[in-house]
Amino acid sequence: MPMAVEIAEARVKRLVNSGLLGSCRPRERLLQLENQVKMIDETSLRKLESFFSALGDLTRLRIVKMIAKEELCSCEVMAALGLTQPTTSHHLGILERGGVVTSRREGKWIFYRIANAEIRSFLEKSHRLVGDS
Fold it and tell me: How many CB atoms lie within 10 A of CB 100?
């Protein structure tokens, strides 16, 4: 067993023995935690990681704030934010792969909108959470 795991297990044992977790044995607590880890759905976590990574950039947050108000063509996003076409496409692609926005093509033009009502609601709640309207 790696030393880091031994140290972590020793800390959990001390925590349990301190009485702060109620009455359980250290080995039982470690088994509970191991079972919780086994129940984590990696696919769902990867989707969440992609979603939150898409929102983890100031430029993409600006784009999302604009698109949340109305469906926009990529050229409108470019013009409004002063971005180049490759940079705009890069950011919109990340937002689309993250499930934040969807696109539709109309001839040469590509329009972007918030992917669905749940994401729109999440974004609105997020703004309220940090005190932004």
Answer: 26
